[in-house]
Amino acid sequence: MNGNINSVRKPRLKHFGYLLLVILVLVFIYLPVAWLIISSISTRAELLNVPINWIPRNPTFHNYFNILMPGADTSGAAQTFRITLRNSLIVSTSVTLISLLVGSLAAYALVRIRFHFNEIFMIGLIATRMIPEISLVIPLYILASRVHILNTPFVLIATYLCFSLPFAIWLMAAFFETIPLELEDAALIDGCSRLRILFQIIIPISVPGLISTALFVFLLAWDEFFFALIFTSTVAAKTVPVAIAEFTGRYVVDVTGMMTGGVLAAIPPVVLALLFQRYIVSGLTAGAVKG
Amino acid sequence: MRSNSSSLSLHQRNNLIGLALVAPSLIIIFGIVLQPILSTLYLSFFDATLGVTKTNIFIGLDNYIDLLRDQVFWVTIQRTIYFTFVSVGLELVLGLAIAQLIHTHPPGWRFLRTSLIIPWAVPTIVNGTMWRWIYNADYGALNALLMQLGLIDKYIPWLIYPKTAMNLVILADIWHSVPFIALILQAALATLPVEMEEAAAVDGANAWQRFWHVRLPLLRSAILVALVIRTVEAFRVFDIIYVITAGGPAYGTVTISYLTYLETFSFGHIGRGSALSFLISLITLLLAFVFIRILYKPGDRL
Q: Which residue of A51, A112, B1, B201 is surrounded by the most CB atoms within 10 Å?
């Protein structure tokens, strides 16, 4: 690109240096991941071997079977892992769908319609992103236990929404803003309602922005730990992050279970992020530059 | 939703439609946020405990005064600032360096850019347990690696030293967060005009001068944004500490959020915990103010 500037002198050496740096960063990224995966396909005995076996002699998918089809001899956390995976899926998907639906209405209004409180609402959105979870958790806990929704996916969906919704509105507003006004003006003159414009004109052409928003919201919900830790203590609603933290018992640590659970928990977000990587970068830019 | 009444002016109609579209979000967000915040503020003026059927006693500002007089509070604040400053500082420097590296398009840069997404997408808790296992005193990969490289001659129980434990938590946080900054900054770099740097080069500026005086100022807003987002996040770090050290050893990695968690849910002091969480809110709101000043320019939209 701009390599024509005085880099002509030692291009070979410079290139070699850059390549070396690339490799260094790649090693830093992949080494821990590799060890996570290797640990998940090793036997417990082999993992507790000193000196270490970097490459397992008898790689096995036994740990995965243990977690996905638990028998009686597996640890408590492994027994229920499957159910927590399902809970996480339910919670994250619900939060994503509701955020997109409800959020797109607000995002459209904020970008396209001049009305009172428009700016105040915008500032309120940023402010909610700053509220520490911990300052909400005590009253919410008391409230949730009073109306008996502790240990239900519902309490998690509701709390996650109050963080994901502002984020989703912010992102979608950034995407909607890039749509040329002319498209709607014609429809408005023809007497289309705002809702029809939103659903028939705006939404269909902002599919990339919606995918990007959905991804971020899904990852956010999938990742959430603090509320899930406080609000869920039974398998009825416990999510994957809580389950993984529980592999560390008070006296014993189920290392293979923890690593296998870790791989399984990382697969959905990592695969989604890699599949839609260009949406991630555009989302980061929009979300970052806009908040 | 049809505009059936001609008596309403366009302005009034817009107000109505705008509010109607925003209302569902407004109800969800503030319905869930507002009551708890006020309730937390209220509780912070009481001597309140969790679970016990004891009536709460109004004690005014005593919780706050107690906290501000407590040595533990100030040590925790210092520790949180250390964590925030070191991790965000290093993340910014490394993120900028990696973004620069990608921008020069060395062999493999596309693969590198894709790879950066992996640590960013790995859930925080998985990241924490992974590093915890790597740092394990008896069977950990870190010990094994350093031993085989001849850098240590016996296995070291890393997480029993408060300072080391803190720095290792920071390392895990860096692994997770550098990609976020690197991806933002490389996207910003890709949009910068090349002409200015070329002009500077013609004027005889060397690579470092060009970076420092031309490129960095152009990146300023992207850097500020990444910086503030990460600072607010780091200041209330909880998850990664919970899994790697659980605040140990000897409270060596207890940050302000963790202290609030302990006060509230381990010791059951709801009043004191509320006061603490309100102090955190105040500090983050201060950061938020900076954030809004940087990001929100009136007239930015519409």
A: A112
